[in-house]
Automatic annotation (TrEMBL):
Keywords: Isoprene biosynthesis, Magnesium, Metal-binding, Transferase. GO terms for biological process: isoprenoid biosynthetic process; ubiquinone biosynthetic process. It comes from Geotrichum candidum (Oospora lactis). GO terms for cellular component: transferase complex. The lineage of its organism: Eukaryota, Fungi, Dikarya, Ascomycota, Saccharomycotina. The keyword Transferase applies. This is Similar to Saccharomyces cerevisiae YBR003W COQ1 Hexaprenyl pyrophosphate synthetase.
Amino acid sequence: MIKHSLLRSVRPHCSKVVQLTLAHRNKSILSHAASAVLSSVKPFESPLSAAINNASKLIQPQKPVDDPFSIVSKEMSTLASNIGKLLGSSHPTLNKFAMYYFKSEGKHIRPLIVLTLSKALSEIPLAEKDSGARDESDVKSSSFSSGAEDDLSPLAILHKVNPDVVLNPLSRPMDDFPSETDGILPKQRRLAEIVEMIHTASLLHDEIIDNAAAKRVLSTGSTAFGNKMAILAGDFLLGRASVAIARLKNAEVIELLSTTISNLVEGEFMQLDDTSVENSDANRADFEYYIHRTYLKTASLMSKSCRASALLSGARENVVDGCYQFGRNLGICFQIVDDINDYAKFNSSSAAASDSVAKRALKTAPVLFAWEKFPQVGDMIRRQFSHPNDIKEIKELVKQAQGLEKTKELALKYSKDAIDQLKVLPDSEARSALVSLTTTLLDRQR
């Protein structure tokens, strides 16, 4: 369950919208973003507080929502149990492992975004939901007695169901779709569950790659059960998620969610195998590489699930595109905030370049901003900070370049862009909740 401390109310007092200015073409895309935020700050305001206030006032809700979770609390309260039904296996260890994360009091940010956006989409008048993608069986029946919940292939083929066999099938048939609640369609609720399954599978795999026990307070799956079981459980989650994706029976939604799985893998490979070009545009190229990696690792799942929710609602193309852009900008902001936390932790530690903390921090925007001002940082990156004084020097160079502050401003720029996309939705409590959620994610800690 999301802790209320995470979900502080949107800060008031500033109504001026950040105006992006044209930057010199030789500046990096990140410098452009940072200078745009700074250019709108009043003399007596700090850049951080001014930009937060600017972003939060882009959309004026009828009524502020202090706790976005309250908008979809009913749906969120059954999330874990519904996922458990999707993951059913008669193998006790696999069952226990697969549900390990879902039973914890995690934040579940991704399904919260999908469900809250789905609620906001329900406020669109029915006459404007004429794209042809709306599944009428999804709307008219909560029990799906028409057969929409049925498996696409015979049970004997899918699950080796045989009444003459004593053993239960290891992978049991899935339960029906959740029922419609307060305008959120059954397939949108299932979408939220699928998104959390994909995300959790990526956590199980990632923690083995980067020794995530050092990143999270909760005992990780690999430390609790071992690396082999963590890998197998992640594969099982992806397999069951893929079945659930197919049963949504919407070709574009299936394509969107399927590509998020490959995007997660591509993003992880990009992080493991960072490359630096050696020419006059090296800094700009690495910035673009960083943003693309950030999209693949985090923003792809958020953006494509937001687009999928809009498609399932039957919304028009401009709304569908706006929802995608909202998720994209929010996802990039989300990952940049994680990178800020990683660098802050590294900066206050005595970690060597080979430590996992340093490896994550040295591939983030604060270091790239330092490179923009100090060319020698490029050489340090290429040799992977292997010289004895590299770690000490990079901390000082990032400080002199105000790399951490510029990265915070970059996150705020993406937050503002995410909120701006919400203008395609009607004013409602759900839309206000999305604004509040977007701004409060800026202050998140791991």
